[in-house]
Amino acid sequence: MVLDLVGNFDSNDMRHHRRQFAKALLDHRDGIDPSKDIPALQFLEEVAYMTRRGVLDKGMVWNSFFWYLGYYYPAVTSGPDLLEEARRRTHCTALYREIAWLYKELCRVDAREEGALHYVPPSDEDIRRFLQDESKLDGAKN
Hints:
Blueprint: H1 2-9, H2 12-27, H3 39-52, H4 58-77, H5 82-90, H6 97-114, H7 124-134
């Protein structure tokens, strides 16, 4: 199941959505409304939900998706927290609740995998480089 999800996340369609989302985060972050259609976040929210429910193994999800979640989540929550602002504005406390849970859980898994006491998040510069790379994705898989 995880391999199918990885394939979906790397599909031409999702690569297009990831590219658009990364560009928006880089160029006009304040204009992003997480309560609207953001397929990259919605996909990670579904992975998070399935992980919380025990359908997916945390270790497998960490191995396949933390590279993305570990950058996208701080990109939307650092500075003005776009997710929290959207929750307040829409009065929907459940908006991206699963992705927040998964990020915290996978930070613990990452620290354990790295043999560290605490998770060390990426720097702002690392996040910017990640978003620049994502913003250059083309429709064809490499």
